[in-house]
Amino acid sequence: MIFIDSWVWIEYFSKDERWREAENVLKKLEEEKGIVSSLVLAEVRYRILRKFDAEKADRVLNAIENFDNLQIVPVTAEVAKYGADIRDKYYRRGEKELSYADAIHLSTAILVNCEELYSGDPDFLDIEEIKTKVI
Fold first, then answer.
1. Residue 9's CATH number
2. Spatial contact of 10 and 122, defined as CB atoms under 8 Å apart
3. In sequence order, what are the residues at sequence separation of 6 or more whose Cβ sits closer than 8 angstroms to the Cβ of residue 66?
4. Against a cut of 0.90, is the pTM above it?
């Protein structure tokens, strides 16, 4: 099982400079089960709204919600509490500024036993609890 961070979805649907790398991650869903936190939907919608418009944001979320082999996991109290612990462990001002959202993504991925987390965000580097791949 793999966790796919918001960065991958935003890069892919925006067709930004590393969209091919993002596409390669999404191709993994043909053979592996993928996981996203429900918070990923909020992040992706916000970024696509800001960059494009509401119509594209709706299409992107619909595509994610209907992606084969992908499960959307809600943010539970357990995920939130563990996310706070993860952020406390890794956040270092000016060095590794792991956001609350990224901490929630990590805690979700860890608690549902994902083998790997994919992102383009360097704040995911050097996480002990799960293998992370920054593309």
1. 3.40.50.1010
2. no
3. none
4. yes
